[in-house]
Design goal:
Order of helices and strands: HHEHEHEHEHEHHEE
Radius of gyration: 16 Å
Distance between the termini: 23 Å
Number of helices: 8
Largest sheet: 7 strands, parallel
Structural class: alpha/beta
Shape: globular
Strand order of the largest sheet: 3-4-2-5-6-1-7
Strand content: 5-15%
Helix content: 25-40%
Number of strands: 7
C-alpha cells in the first residue's frame, strides 16, 4: 500500500487528539488487518473499496476518516451535513450510530440517524447533523419529501455492507441519490463479501479507488 510505515496502533496514524481520546476511552488501541491497509489511504482522501469478514473492524475504517476530515475542516453541528453513511438495515444503522456517539464525545460535531421503526423516530431529534446515517429506502423518502435537504456540502459518503444494499435491490435508488451528491467528495465502500453485484459499483463513480481485501480473520472488533 501507499503507506510503508509500520502501523500497529491508532497512535501510529497521527490522528487528532479528540479522535484519539474517543478511541482510547472505548478501549480501541490496536488496528485490525483491514484497518491497517484501508485507514491510511482513506486519511489521504482516497476512495476506498474494502472487503473483509464480519467482525474484522470495518466500521472504524470509514468512521475515523470521517471524523478526521470534519475535524480538519473545523466542522461543527452548525455547518450541517458533512458526511453520509448508508447501511442496508436499521439494526446496523443503530449500531453505527451508538458507536459514533461514544467516539465523538470530544468533538464539536454530532450525528443523527434516519431509519424505519419507532427506535429511529426516537433517535432522530436534531435538525442540524454533521454525520447522517440512513438506510437507502428511508434516505430516498427523506429526499423526496424534504426538497430542502442539502447533500451538496457532503465531504465523505460511506457505504457499509454494500453487498447487502445491492442484494436488496437498491441499485436504482442509489443511482438516483448519487445525482444529488457533490462532484468533489470521498467515497468509502465496505463489504463482507465479494460477489457479482460489486460490478454495479460503477454507478458510484469511484475516483481511482484503493482496493483493500482481507480474506482471513484473526482479530475481531467493530
Amino acid at each position: 500500500m501507499e503507506n510503508k510505515m509500520k502501523i500497529d496502533t491508532f497512535l501510529d496514524l497521527k490522528l487528532s487528539e479528540n479522535t484519539l481520546k474517543g478511541l482510547f476511552k472505548n478501549n480501541f488501541l490496536k488496528l485490525t488487518s483491514i484497518q491497517k491497509i484501508s485507514i491510511p489511504p482513506a486519511l489521504k482522501n482516497r476512495d476506498i473499496l474494502g472487503t473483509s469478514k464480519t467482525g474484522s473492524g470495518k466500521t472504524l475504517c470509514f468512521l475515523i476518516p470521517i471524523f478526521e476530515k470534519l475535524w480538519i475542516k473545523n466542522w461543527t453541528f452548525q455547518d450541517g451535513m458533512g458526511s453520509l453513511i448508508i447501511c442496508p438495515v436499521r439494526e446496523l444503522g443503530i449500531q453505527i450510530f451508538n458507536l459514533i456517539k461514544k467516539l465523538i464525545a470530544f468533538h464539536d460535531f454530532n450525528a443523527t440517524i434516519l431509519i424505519g421503526g419507532n427506535v429511529g423516530n426516537k433517535i432522530e431529534q436534531k435538525n442540524l447533523e454533521s454525520i447522517f446515517i440512513a438506510t437507502p429506502g428511508n434516505l430516498i423518502k427523506k429526499v423526496l419529501i424534504s426538497p430542502n435537504l442539502c447533500l451538496k456540502n457532503l465531504k465523505t459518503i460511506a457505504f457499509d455492507e454494500i453487498d447487502h444494499i445491492l442484494n436488496k435491490g437498491f441499485q436504482k435508488g442509489i443511482s438516483f441519490i448519487k445525482n444529488l451528491f457533490p462532484r468533489k467528495k470521498q467515497t468509502l465502500i465496505f463489504s463482507a463479501t465479494l460477489n457479482s453485484n460489486i460490478k454495479n459499483l460503477a454507478i458510484l463513480n469511484l475516483k481511482n479507488p484503493i482496493y483493500c481485501f482481507i480474506f482471513s480473520i484473526s482479530d475481531k472488533t467493530i
